[in-house]
Amino acid sequence: MAEPITPQPSSSYPQSAQQASANEQQSAPLPALLLGTFTPKMDAKGRVALPARFRQILNGTFVLSRGQERCIYLLPADEFRRMALKIQQAPLGNKAARDYLRVFLSGAVEETTDNQGRVVIPPMLRTYAKLDKQVAVIGVGTRAEIWDLQTWNEYLAGQEEGYSELADDVLTQVSW
Fold it and tell me: Measured between alpha carbons, how far is 135 from 162 in angstroms, rounded to an integer?
């Protein structure tokens, strides 16, 4: 039986590792993105209803952890593990990495939603994010964030002013 013919690159030059990596990333399926802003109420037991689309993407177990700017990160379990492993690659002698890892991991908890699509936010994380009854659940791509609604609105108002400048700073670092 004849061996299958493997297509060769059209160029006679070998692909660089960077090009090969970029090609692999382009062909790999992209994860579903968590998008949008939702404003559910938190009940007295600290339960917040997650949007149906978020529950579908999170598919079971996820992790809640301290986020930046006093929000709570809600990450798919796989994404949380990927982030934690990446941070742990920093040298043990790097005090900033040790400090960040301690705060990030010590405040993390695995959770699932109940039958009504609600997640219980532990008291420690509610205190950290200064959550009241009104919360904002926002999609940020591979993670969601849970904010106190008033804090989120103030943060967003402050960011909207310089949104164009942020785009100039961030998008120039992205290779399209």
Answer: 24
